[in-house]
Amino acid sequence: MVPRDEALTAQPGHVLVGVLRIPESPGSPTRVIVRRVAIAVLVLMAAAVMVYLGRSGYRDIKGGQLTFLDCVYYAAVSLSTTGYGDITPDTEPARLVNVVVMTPLRIAFLAVLVGTTLEVLSERSRQAWKIQRWRNKVRNHTVVIGYGTKGKTAVAAMLSDEAAPGDIVVVDTDQTALSQAAAAGLVTVHGDATRSDVLRLAAAQHASSIIVATSRDDTAALVTLTAREIAPKAKIVASIREAENQHLLRQSGADSVVVSSETAGRLLGIATTTPRVVEMIEDLLTPDAGFAIAERQVEQTEVGGSPRHLRDIVLGVVRNGHLLRVDAPEVDAIEASDRLLYIRSVGS
Fold it and tell me: Average pLDDT, stretch 278-300?
Protein backbone atom coordinates (compact mmCIF):
# COMPACT_ATOMS: atom_id res chain seq x y z
CA MET A 1 0.00 0.00 0.00
CA VAL A 2 1.35 3.43 -0.98
CA PRO A 3 1.72 5.86 2.00
CA ARG A 4 -0.66 8.81 1.97
CA ASP A 5 2.13 11.36 1.53
CA GLU A 6 3.33 9.50 -1.57
CA ALA A 7 -0.10 8.75 -3.04
CA LEU A 8 0.35 11.21 -5.91
CA THR A 9 4.11 11.57 -6.21
CA ALA A 10 4.55 7.82 -6.62
CA GLN A 11 2.19 7.73 -9.60
CA PRO A 12 3.45 7.59 -13.23
CA GLY A 13 2.80 10.49 -15.59
CA HIS A 14 -0.23 9.01 -17.37
CA VAL A 15 -2.11 8.70 -14.06
CA LEU A 16 -1.51 12.39 -13.29
CA VAL A 17 -3.08 13.72 -16.49
CA GLY A 18 -5.92 15.95 -15.29
CA VAL A 19 -4.21 16.58 -11.93
CA LEU A 20 -0.95 18.11 -13.16
CA ARG A 21 -1.11 20.09 -16.38
CA ILE A 22 1.87 21.34 -18.35
CA PRO A 23 0.99 24.20 -20.73
CA GLU A 24 1.78 24.02 -24.43
CA SER A 25 1.44 26.38 -27.33
CA PRO A 26 -2.03 26.13 -28.85
CA GLY A 27 -2.17 25.00 -32.49
CA SER A 28 -4.19 26.69 -35.22
CA PRO A 29 -7.46 24.81 -36.00
CA THR A 30 -7.02 25.62 -39.69
CA ARG A 31 -3.53 24.15 -39.67
CA VAL A 32 -4.79 20.97 -37.98
CA ILE A 33 -7.55 20.55 -40.60
CA VAL A 34 -5.15 21.19 -43.49
CA ARG A 35 -2.68 18.68 -42.08
CA ARG A 36 -5.36 16.00 -41.74
CA VAL A 37 -6.64 16.57 -45.28
CA ALA A 38 -3.09 16.42 -46.61
CA ILE A 39 -2.46 13.11 -44.83
CA ALA A 40 -5.72 11.66 -46.19
CA VAL A 41 -4.84 12.73 -49.74
CA LEU A 42 -1.34 11.26 -49.46
CA VAL A 43 -2.72 7.94 -48.21
CA LEU A 44 -5.29 7.90 -51.02
CA MET A 45 -2.72 8.67 -53.72
CA ALA A 46 -0.31 6.07 -52.34
CA ALA A 47 -3.05 3.46 -52.57
CA ALA A 48 -4.00 4.59 -56.09
CA VAL A 49 -0.39 4.36 -57.30
CA MET A 50 -0.05 0.89 -55.77
CA VAL A 51 -3.18 -0.29 -57.58
CA TYR A 52 -2.09 1.35 -60.84
CA LEU A 53 1.27 -0.45 -60.77
CA GLY A 54 -0.53 -3.78 -60.47
CA ARG A 55 -3.58 -2.83 -62.57
CA SER A 56 -3.26 -5.96 -64.71
CA GLY A 57 -4.33 -8.02 -61.71
CA TYR A 58 -7.69 -6.25 -61.31
CA ARG A 59 -10.96 -6.93 -63.09
CA ASP A 60 -13.43 -4.21 -63.99
CA ILE A 61 -17.03 -5.24 -64.78
CA LYS A 62 -17.10 -2.77 -67.68
CA GLY A 63 -14.05 -4.50 -69.17
CA GLY A 64 -10.72 -3.13 -70.33
CA GLN A 65 -7.59 -2.22 -68.44
CA LEU A 66 -7.84 0.20 -65.50
CA THR A 67 -6.96 3.83 -66.05
CA PHE A 68 -5.30 5.90 -63.33
CA LEU A 69 -8.68 7.50 -62.61
CA ASP A 70 -10.12 4.02 -62.15
CA CYS A 71 -7.33 3.28 -59.68
CA VAL A 72 -8.04 6.46 -57.71
CA TYR A 73 -11.73 5.50 -57.68
CA TYR A 74 -10.97 1.97 -56.47
CA ALA A 75 -8.60 3.29 -53.78
CA ALA A 76 -11.23 5.76 -52.53
CA VAL A 77 -14.06 3.23 -52.24
CA SER A 78 -11.70 0.62 -50.78
CA LEU A 79 -10.09 2.85 -48.15
CA SER A 80 -13.46 4.22 -47.08
CA THR A 81 -14.72 0.60 -46.78
CA THR A 82 -17.57 1.39 -49.19
CA GLY A 83 -16.57 -1.38 -51.61
CA TYR A 84 -19.02 -1.27 -54.54
CA GLY A 85 -17.50 -4.41 -56.06
CA ASP A 86 -17.30 -3.16 -59.65
CA ILE A 87 -13.50 -3.35 -59.51
CA THR A 88 -11.97 -6.36 -57.74
CA PRO A 89 -8.52 -7.93 -57.38
CA ASP A 90 -8.51 -10.92 -59.70
CA THR A 91 -5.05 -12.42 -59.26
CA GLU A 92 -3.13 -13.68 -56.25
CA PRO A 93 -0.49 -10.89 -56.38
CA ALA A 94 -3.25 -8.28 -56.49
CA ARG A 95 -5.03 -9.87 -53.55
CA LEU A 96 -1.75 -10.08 -51.64
CA VAL A 97 -1.19 -6.37 -52.21
CA ASN A 98 -4.69 -5.69 -50.87
CA VAL A 99 -3.97 -7.69 -47.73
CA VAL A 100 -0.43 -6.46 -47.06
CA VAL A 101 -0.65 -2.85 -48.32
CA MET A 102 -4.24 -1.76 -48.68
CA THR A 103 -5.32 -2.94 -45.24
CA PRO A 104 -2.72 -0.82 -43.34
CA LEU A 105 -3.52 2.14 -45.61
CA ARG A 106 -7.22 1.64 -44.92
CA ILE A 107 -6.51 1.74 -41.18
CA ALA A 108 -4.44 4.91 -41.59
CA PHE A 109 -7.15 6.52 -43.72
CA LEU A 110 -9.84 5.74 -41.16
CA ALA A 111 -7.61 7.01 -38.38
CA VAL A 112 -7.45 10.37 -40.13
CA LEU A 113 -11.23 10.40 -40.53
CA VAL A 114 -11.66 9.84 -36.79
CA GLY A 115 -8.81 12.19 -35.99
CA THR A 116 -10.61 13.89 -33.13
CA THR A 117 -10.58 10.74 -31.04
CA LEU A 118 -7.01 10.03 -32.06
CA GLU A 119 -5.97 13.55 -31.13
CA VAL A 120 -7.50 13.19 -27.67
CA LEU A 121 -5.52 10.01 -27.11
CA SER A 122 -2.31 11.52 -28.44
CA GLU A 123 -2.85 14.63 -26.30
CA ARG A 124 -3.15 12.47 -23.21
CA SER A 125 0.01 10.58 -24.12
CA ARG A 126 1.84 13.83 -24.87
CA GLN A 127 0.73 15.32 -21.53
CA ALA A 128 1.88 12.18 -19.68
CA TRP A 129 5.31 12.44 -21.32
CA LYS A 130 5.56 16.17 -20.58
CA ILE A 131 4.52 15.63 -16.96
CA GLN A 132 7.26 13.06 -16.42
CA ARG A 133 9.84 15.24 -18.15
CA TRP A 134 8.78 18.31 -16.14
CA ARG A 135 8.95 16.44 -12.83
CA ASN A 136 12.50 15.35 -13.58
CA LYS A 137 13.73 18.83 -14.52
CA VAL A 138 11.80 21.43 -12.52
CA ARG A 139 13.97 23.38 -10.06
CA ASN A 140 14.03 26.85 -8.46
CA HIS A 141 10.48 27.71 -9.51
CA THR A 142 7.68 29.50 -7.66
CA VAL A 143 4.63 27.71 -6.29
CA VAL A 144 1.50 29.84 -5.96
CA ILE A 145 -1.15 28.33 -3.70
CA GLY A 146 -4.53 29.82 -4.50
CA TYR A 147 -5.40 31.51 -7.80
CA GLY A 148 -8.00 33.95 -6.55
CA THR A 149 -7.61 37.72 -6.66
CA LYS A 150 -4.42 37.72 -4.57
CA GLY A 151 -2.86 34.81 -6.40
CA LYS A 152 -3.62 36.25 -9.84
CA THR A 153 -2.20 39.63 -8.83
CA ALA A 154 0.94 38.00 -7.45
CA VAL A 155 1.45 36.06 -10.68
CA ALA A 156 0.83 39.19 -12.77
CA ALA A 157 3.48 41.04 -10.75
CA MET A 158 6.00 38.24 -11.30
CA LEU A 159 5.29 38.08 -15.01
CA SER A 160 5.63 41.86 -15.25
CA ASP A 161 8.99 41.47 -13.54
CA GLU A 162 10.12 39.17 -16.38
CA ALA A 163 9.44 35.83 -14.69
CA ALA A 164 8.82 32.99 -17.16
CA PRO A 165 5.28 31.50 -17.05
CA GLY A 166 6.78 28.01 -17.11
CA ASP A 167 8.57 28.76 -13.82
CA ILE A 168 5.29 29.32 -11.97
CA VAL A 169 3.15 26.46 -10.64
CA VAL A 170 -0.40 27.16 -9.45
CA VAL A 171 -2.08 24.87 -6.92
CA ASP A 172 -5.84 25.17 -6.39
CA THR A 173 -8.97 23.09 -5.92
CA ASP A 174 -11.05 25.27 -8.24
CA GLN A 175 -10.96 23.84 -11.76
CA THR A 176 -12.16 27.13 -13.27
CA ALA A 177 -9.27 29.01 -11.66
CA LEU A 178 -6.83 26.38 -12.88
CA SER A 179 -8.20 26.68 -16.43
CA GLN A 180 -7.52 30.42 -16.29
CA ALA A 181 -4.00 29.77 -15.02
CA ALA A 182 -3.37 27.22 -17.76
CA ALA A 183 -4.62 29.72 -20.36
CA ALA A 184 -1.95 32.12 -19.05
CA GLY A 185 0.72 29.48 -19.74
CA LEU A 186 1.22 28.40 -16.12
CA VAL A 187 1.76 24.87 -14.86
CA THR A 188 -1.23 23.82 -12.74
CA VAL A 189 -1.88 21.21 -10.06
CA HIS A 190 -5.40 20.32 -8.99
CA GLY A 191 -5.50 19.44 -5.31
CA ASP A 192 -5.61 20.52 -1.66
CA ALA A 193 -2.34 22.26 -0.77
CA THR A 194 -2.69 21.29 2.90
CA ARG A 195 -1.68 17.78 1.77
CA SER A 196 2.04 17.26 1.44
CA ASP A 197 1.68 14.89 -1.53
CA VAL A 198 -0.06 17.65 -3.51
CA LEU A 199 2.75 20.10 -2.72
CA ARG A 200 5.32 17.48 -3.65
CA LEU A 201 3.52 16.98 -6.94
CA ALA A 202 4.00 20.72 -7.52
CA ALA A 203 7.71 20.09 -6.75
CA ALA A 204 7.54 22.46 -3.77
CA GLN A 205 10.57 20.64 -2.31
CA HIS A 206 12.62 22.06 -5.20
CA ALA A 207 11.00 25.52 -5.28
CA SER A 208 12.90 28.70 -4.55
CA SER A 209 9.76 30.47 -3.28
CA ILE A 210 6.21 29.61 -2.24
CA ILE A 211 3.34 32.10 -2.22
CA VAL A 212 0.40 31.26 0.03
CA ALA A 213 -2.64 33.19 -1.21
CA THR A 214 -5.54 31.22 0.24
CA SER A 215 -8.88 32.79 1.14
CA ARG A 216 -8.80 31.73 4.82
CA ASP A 217 -6.20 32.46 7.49
CA ASP A 218 -6.45 29.02 9.11
CA THR A 219 -5.90 27.38 5.74
CA ALA A 220 -2.92 29.65 5.12
CA ALA A 221 -1.37 28.58 8.43
CA LEU A 222 -1.82 24.87 7.69
CA VAL A 223 -0.50 25.24 4.14
CA THR A 224 2.52 27.16 5.43
CA LEU A 225 3.26 24.45 8.01
CA THR A 226 3.08 21.76 5.35
CA ALA A 227 5.16 23.76 2.87
CA ARG A 228 7.86 24.52 5.43
CA GLU A 229 8.11 20.86 6.37
CA ILE A 230 8.84 19.71 2.81
CA ALA A 231 10.70 22.84 1.65
CA PRO A 232 12.91 24.02 4.54
CA LYS A 233 15.01 26.29 2.32
CA ALA A 234 12.27 27.91 0.24
CA LYS A 235 11.19 31.50 0.82
CA ILE A 236 7.56 31.38 1.94
CA VAL A 237 5.40 34.48 1.58
CA ALA A 238 1.88 34.29 2.98
CA SER A 239 -1.13 36.57 2.81
CA ILE A 240 -3.71 36.77 5.61
CA ARG A 241 -6.79 38.85 6.29
CA GLU A 242 -6.39 39.62 10.00
CA ALA A 243 -3.29 41.06 11.68
CA GLU A 244 -3.94 39.04 14.85
CA ASN A 245 -3.03 35.89 12.91
CA GLN A 246 0.30 37.23 11.74
CA HIS A 247 2.30 35.57 14.52
CA LEU A 248 0.70 32.22 13.69
CA LEU A 249 1.99 32.39 10.13
CA ARG A 250 5.43 33.38 11.39
CA GLN A 251 5.47 30.43 13.77
CA SER A 252 4.30 28.18 10.95
CA GLY A 253 7.40 29.08 8.96
CA ALA A 254 6.48 32.06 6.77
CA ASP A 255 9.40 34.38 5.96
CA SER A 256 7.08 37.27 5.10
CA VAL A 257 3.44 37.88 5.98
CA VAL A 258 1.23 40.38 4.18
CA VAL A 259 -1.89 41.52 6.02
CA SER A 260 -4.25 42.29 3.17
CA SER A 261 -7.04 43.92 5.18
CA GLU A 262 -4.72 46.29 7.08
CA THR A 263 -2.75 47.19 3.95
CA ALA A 264 -5.94 48.01 2.08
CA GLY A 265 -7.27 49.92 5.09
CA ARG A 266 -4.14 52.08 5.31
CA LEU A 267 -4.34 52.92 1.61
CA LEU A 268 -8.01 53.82 1.98
CA GLY A 269 -7.25 56.10 4.90
CA ILE A 270 -4.36 57.81 3.10
CA ALA A 271 -6.48 58.27 -0.01
CA THR A 272 -8.98 60.46 1.86
CA THR A 273 -6.37 63.17 2.42
CA THR A 274 -3.49 62.50 0.02
CA PRO A 275 -4.78 60.40 -2.91
CA ARG A 276 -1.65 61.10 -4.95
CA VAL A 277 0.40 59.21 -2.37
CA VAL A 278 -1.72 56.13 -3.01
CA GLU A 279 -1.19 56.53 -6.75
CA MET A 280 2.56 56.65 -6.21
CA ILE A 281 2.49 53.57 -3.96
CA GLU A 282 0.51 51.66 -6.60
CA ASP A 283 3.00 52.80 -9.22
CA LEU A 284 5.90 51.49 -7.12
CA LEU A 285 4.12 48.16 -6.70
CA THR A 286 3.50 47.77 -10.45
CA PRO A 287 6.74 46.56 -12.10
CA ASP A 288 5.62 47.13 -15.69
CA ALA A 289 4.82 50.85 -15.46
CA GLY A 290 6.51 54.00 -14.18
CA PHE A 291 8.73 53.31 -11.18
CA ALA A 292 9.25 50.11 -9.23
CA ILE A 293 10.94 49.00 -6.02
CA ALA A 294 13.78 46.63 -6.88
CA GLU A 295 16.67 44.88 -5.18
CA ARG A 296 20.24 44.59 -6.41
CA GLN A 297 23.72 43.64 -5.29
CA VAL A 298 26.24 46.24 -4.19
CA GLU A 299 28.72 47.27 -6.87
CA GLN A 300 32.41 47.13 -6.04
CA THR A 301 32.78 50.90 -6.39
CA GLU A 302 30.00 51.45 -3.82
CA VAL A 303 31.59 49.45 -0.97
CA GLY A 304 32.39 51.72 1.99
CA GLY A 305 30.16 54.55 0.79
CA SER A 306 26.87 55.79 2.18
CA PRO A 307 23.66 54.45 0.61
CA ARG A 308 22.24 57.98 0.75
CA HIS A 309 24.87 59.25 -1.65
CA LEU A 310 24.42 56.80 -4.52
CA ARG A 311 23.01 57.57 -7.96
CA ASP A 312 19.97 55.41 -7.16
CA ILE A 313 17.33 56.36 -4.60
CA VAL A 314 18.01 53.72 -1.94
CA LEU A 315 15.21 52.91 0.52
CA GLY A 316 16.91 50.22 2.58
CA VAL A 317 19.83 47.86 2.96
CA VAL A 318 19.51 44.09 3.38
CA ARG A 319 22.32 42.85 5.62
CA ASN A 320 22.56 39.27 6.88
CA GLY A 321 18.96 38.68 5.87
CA HIS A 322 17.61 41.69 7.79
CA LEU A 323 16.19 44.87 6.27
CA LEU A 324 17.63 48.11 7.64
CA ARG A 325 16.35 51.59 6.84
CA VAL A 326 18.67 53.76 4.82
CA ASP A 327 19.07 56.20 7.73
CA ALA A 328 20.11 53.49 10.20
CA PRO A 329 23.58 54.30 11.59
CA GLU A 330 24.88 50.74 11.07
CA VAL A 331 24.54 51.08 7.29
CA ASP A 332 26.44 54.35 6.94
CA ALA A 333 29.14 52.28 5.24
CA ILE A 334 27.98 49.76 2.64
CA GLU A 335 29.48 46.26 2.82
CA ALA A 336 30.20 44.04 -0.17
CA SER A 337 27.69 41.41 0.99
CA ASP A 338 24.82 43.93 1.31
CA ARG A 339 21.87 44.18 -1.05
CA LEU A 340 20.15 47.47 -1.81
CA LEU A 341 16.44 48.19 -2.08
CA TYR A 342 16.08 51.08 -4.49
CA ILE A 343 13.64 52.81 -6.81
CA ARG A 344 14.26 52.07 -10.46
CA SER A 345 12.62 53.39 -13.56
CA VAL A 346 10.92 50.66 -15.56
CA GLY A 347 12.94 49.97 -18.70
CA SER A 348 16.24 51.00 -17.18
Answer: 81
AA letter at 27: G
Among 75, 81, 78, 69, smallest CA distance to 51 is for: 75
Residues whose CB is less than 8 angstroms from the CB of residue 122 and which lie 6 or more positions away in sequence, other chains included:
none
Contact 236, 213 (CB under 8 A): no
Q: What is the DSSP letter of 253?
A: T
pLDDT per residue over 109-132, tens digit each?
777 766 655 565 566 677 777 788
Inter-residue contact 152 to 118 (CB < 8 Å): no
Residue 159 forms part of a structural domain: yes
Distance CA 293, CA 333 (A): 22
What is the model's pLDDT at position 322?
87
Q: C-alpha angle with apex 292: 291 to 296, nearest 5 degrees?
A: 125
Same domain, 105 and 206: no
What is residue 90's three-state secondary structure? coil
- Residues with Cβ within 8 Å of 193's Cβ and at least 6 positions away in sequence, in order, are 145, 146, 171, 172, 199, 202, 214, 223, 226, 227
Residue type (1 letter), 21 = R
Of 16-25, 144-153, 321-330, highest mean pLDDT: 144-153
* Same domain flag for 164 and 243: yes
Give SS3 for 16.
helix
Which of 262, 281, 311 marks a domain boundary?
Answer: 262
Q: Is residue 328 part of a domain?
A: yes
Q: What is the mean pLDDT of residues 312-327?
A: 90
In a domain, 304, yes or no: yes
Q: Each residue of 28-65: pLDDT tens digit? A: 556 666 777 788 888 889 888 988 888 888 888 877 78
